[in-house]
């Protein structure tokens, strides 16, 4: 274990300074809002922060053990909460759902039951650390009942710190934001982006300029895009990026997308096609139509119908 838990975090100097000083001066806030783009190190920063906070009461010889326990997620005073899918009465994170090959039609959510579990977790004092810590990833996925329930916990967190990870303060209820200290995160420059991708063994992503452009300074987004790219049949992607050859072809592609791709992959495909089409032909109508497709997919409209309308419009735009 290094002397600096934040060593792996690249390009977020302000966040590192704010969190380090909070622990150093013993002025850790009851709640934090880690706000910034996806994939730029917010979750990593949360892990580093927890490690720094918990290490303050651990003997030096036990620090490696602490680091391993935190990495494995089995520390009794840390609760890490992720959005979940509901399937046959059970909850699954995105990773668990992918592992079990569950069909996912709707995006994952942080659910009211999970907020109740947080309340129960915080009802007891910490066992080993100076305080209990709860981290909520993708806090913007909370529905209003869950957010209101969390608000009550934030008002009286007890001997605890709660970290909300979100793209922006505007993506969660203002009442939640007002009770948190904001820690800002920013997109990385090209040098830092390359450094992270290289350090994490993802050099292959650097060979795809379109993915790097789509990532907009987010290593995590670049890696996720590369992984999504591998899940889409090459011939399907080729047909889509060159635009449908006929109206019938557009309908066939829509049928295949609906059959072969999960909702998350379809949403990623919208972004990828926007980038691809704009680079080939600057047609605002296509970009607008794809943006409509994203909105319909997010409100659980019938995917095949969404893609039929979208790809027919793409065909017409390309053949005007």
List the helices and strands and how they pair.
Blueprint: H1 13-24, E1 31-35, H2 42-55, H3 63-72, E2 78-81, E3 85-87, E4 90-92, H4 94-99, H5 112-122, E5 132-136, H6 144-155, E6 160-166, H7 174-177, E7 181-184, H8 190-199, H9 209-215, H10 219-231, H11 234-241, H12 247-260, H13 263-280, H14 284-298, H15 303-318
Parallel strand pairs: 1-6, 1-7, 2-5, 5-6
Antiparallel strand pairs: 3-4
Helix pairs in contact: 1-2, 2-3, 5-6, 9-10, 9-13, 12-15, 13-14, 14-15
GO molecular function: DNA-directed DNA polymerase activity
InterPro entries: DNA_pol_HolB (IPR004622), DNA_Rep/Repair_Clamp_Loader (IPR050238), P-loop_NTPase (IPR027417)
Enzyme class: transferase
Task: Give a description of the structure.
- GO terms for molecular function: DNA-directed DNA polymerase activity.
- Keywords: Nucleotidyltransferase, Transferase.
- Its EC number is 2.7.7.7.
- It contains 15 helices and 7 strands.
- α1 runs parallel beside α2 and α13 runs antiparallel to α14.
- The longest helix is centred in the C-terminal third of the chain and has 18 residues, at 263-280.
- The chain has helices at 13-24, 42-55, 63-72, 94-99, 112-122, 144-155, 174-177, 190-199, 209-215, 219-231, 234-241, 247-260, 263-280, 284-298, 303-318; strands spanning 31-35, 78-81, 85-87, 90-92, 132-136, 160-166, 181-184.
- The protein has 3 domains: 13-186, 3-Layer(aba) Sandwich (Rossmann fold); 191-230; 232-318.
- The protein is globular, with a radius of gyration of 22 Å.
- A 5-stranded parallel beta sheet has the order 2-5-6-1-7, sandwiched between helices.
- Helix content is 53%, strand content 10%.
- It has 320 residues and is α/β, with parallel strands linked by helices.
């Amino acid at each position: 274990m290094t002397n600096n838990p934040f060593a792996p975090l690249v390009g977020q100097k302000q966040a590192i300074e704010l969190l380090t000083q909070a622990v150093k001066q013993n002025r850790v806030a009851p709640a934090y809002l880690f706000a910034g783009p996806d994939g730029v190190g917010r979750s990593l920063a949360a892990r580093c922060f927890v490690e720094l906070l918990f290490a303050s009461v651990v003997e030096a010889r036990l620090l490696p053990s602490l680091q391993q326990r935190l990495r494995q997620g089995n520390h009794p005073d840390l609760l890490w909460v992720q959005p979940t899918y509901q399937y046959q009465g059970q909850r699954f994170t995105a990773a668990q759902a992918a592992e079990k090959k569950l069909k996912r039609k709707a995006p994952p959510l942080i659910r009211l039951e999970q907020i109740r579990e947080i309340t129960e977790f915080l009802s007891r004092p910490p066992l080993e650390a100076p305080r209990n810590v709860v981290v909520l990833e993708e806090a913007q996925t909370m529905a209003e009942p869950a957010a209101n329930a969390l608000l009550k916990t934030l008002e009286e967190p007890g001997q605890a710190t709660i970290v909300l990870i979100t793209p922006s303060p505007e993506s969660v209820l203002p009442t939640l934001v007002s009770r948190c200290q904001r820690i800002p995160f920013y997109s990385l420059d090209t040098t830092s982006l390359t450094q992270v991708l290289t350090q994490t063994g993802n050099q292959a992503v650097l060979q795809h300029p379109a993915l790097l452009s789509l990532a907009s300074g987010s290593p995590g987004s670049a890696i996720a895009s590369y992984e999504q790219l591998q899940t889409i049949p090459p011939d399907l992607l080729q047909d889509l990026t060159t635009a449908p050859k006929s109206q019938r072809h557009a309908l066939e592609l829509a049928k295949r997308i609906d059959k072969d791709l999960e909702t998350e992959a379809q949403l990623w495909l919208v972004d990828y096609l926007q980038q691809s089409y704009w680079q080939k032909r600057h047609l605002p109508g296509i970009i607008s139509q794809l943006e409509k497709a994203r909105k319909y997919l997010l409100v659980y409209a019938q995917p095949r119908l969404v893609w039929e309308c979208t790809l027919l419009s793409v065909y017409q735009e390309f053949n005007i």
